[in-house]
Write a structure and sequence with these properties.
This protein has 375 residues and is of the alpha/beta class. The protein has 14 helices and 14 strands. Strands 6, 7, 8, 9, 10, 11, 12, 13 and 14 form a nine-stranded mixed β-sheet that branches. The chain starts with a strand and ends with a helix. Bound molecules: magnesium ion.
């Protein structure tokens, strides 16, 4: 049994644009999301150390909040003296602890515990999840913030960088009117030709009516999926959008726990689930969500935006999950993905290899974390 002896937590932050020196071969351009580019990121790192000397780590991603940090600080002492093999029990205990909050505080801990278990057994996490169905996963390039006159070149630069067969672009509120988003999609399709899939992500910024209008306006451009058309608070609205179009609807990066995904499935609101492993409750909960997806003929494509550890967690899940079909690969200049670890993910010919290394197969560049730690 693997006894948890020590848990360390610390915060750090860094200015994105001053980092430079990117080691990831696939990264291009700025880092941002639907509301624009980001100039500073704030994170926290959790390190769980066992009596065997194995270390499970997780570093939170861009959407981590003070609440997440506070929750993890509250839970950390409760890990001491427990065994990594008790992961399911720890999950249930912590879910009760967090019942009055969201569940983001537990996801990082759960991912770190899976990492420890894999290391202690000298086995990759995907083996513990049921075995590897693929040696590599197809990936799509995620980015696409440019205006209509530049979006074609931006997306083509992604395709050239990693041999991607699919790209995702941002649409929605930043474009002003729906017709401007549709113009950008039209420009993207014309530049990419017919053989590259295009996904569109509105980050929940449309009303139901706007989302329906967008679907109608881009009907002829063969969109692979339309992601978060409306706010995650409006699952019935999402179902209404889905029933109005044959464009597949993707959602889930803002959902916590299997219960939210069950509701989406019951409402027939989505074709593709995109759990964020840190937000949804970790690998433990993501496995349950993947099972729901499989039972409802919903495909799985996790939100892998956050960083190298979260990317690895999602990749191991997809390696074993029957519903998984593609993974997200951020093309923004995200140092959490490309500089946090020497094992930063690489994409070649549109595929990412699934590692044989024990645990999640990721080590942390401690110089990076220490240099940017908050005093
Ligand atoms: Mg998204």
């Amino acid at each position: 049994m693997t006894l948890i002896k020590k848990v360390e937590l610390h915060e750090f932050k860094f200015p994105v644009n001053n980092l430079g020196n990117l080691t990831g071969a696939n990264s291009v351009g700025a880092f941002g999301y639907s509301k624009g580019e980001v100039s500073e990121l704030k994170k926290f790192a959790i390190k769980i150390i066992t009596d065997e000397g194995t270390v499970g780590e997780y570093v939170t991603h861009w959407c981590s909040t003070a609440s997440t940090f506070a929750q993890s600080c509250m839970l950390a002492p409760k890990l001491l003296g427990r065994h990594a093999e008790e992961r399911e029990g720890i999950y249930d205990d912590f879910k009760r602890e967090l019942r009055q909050f969201d569940h983001m505080g537990h996801g990082p801990i759960d991912i770190a515990l899976w990492d420890i278990l894999g290391q202690s057994l000298n086995t990759p996490v995907w083996q513990l999840l049921g075995g590897r169905r693929h040696k590599r996963m197809p990936a799509y390039a995620s980015g696409g913030w440019a205006s209509a006159d530049k979006i074609g070149d931006q997306l083509l630069s992604y395709v050239e960088k990693g041999g991607f067969k699919a790209v995702k672009m941002r649409i929605g509120v930043a474009d002003g009117e729906v017709r401007h988003s549709a113009e950008r999609v039209e420009a993207a399709r014309k530049a990419l030709g017919d053989d590259i899939d295009i996904m569109c992500d509105a980050h929940g910024t449309y009303t139901v009516a706007e989302a329906k209008r967008f679907c109608r306006m881009v009907e002829e451009y063969n969109i692979a999926w339309f992601e978060e058309p409306v706010t995650a608070d409006d699952k019935k609205g999402l179902a209404e959008v889905r029933s109005s179009t044959d464009i597949p609807i993707a959602t889930g990066e803002n959902e916590a726990t299997r219960f939210s995904f069950r509701d989406l499935a019951e409402l027939r609101a989505a074709d593709i689930f995109q759990p964020d492993l840190a937000i949804c409750g970790g690998i433990t909960e993501a496995v349950r969500i993947a099972a729901i997806a499989s039972a409802y003929q919903i495909r799985l494509a996790p939100h892998l935006w956050g960083g190298a550890l979260m990317f690895a967690a999602g990749l191991h899940l997809c390696a074993a999950a029957p519903a998984a079909f593609i993974i997200e690969y951020s093309l923004g200049a995200n140092p959490m993905l490309f500089e946090l670890s020497p094992e930063a993910p690489k994409c070649t010919d549109g595929y990412v290899e699934i590692s044989d290394r024990p645990g999640l197969g990721i080590t942390i560049n401690n110089d990076f974390v220490e240099y940017y730690s908050v005093e």
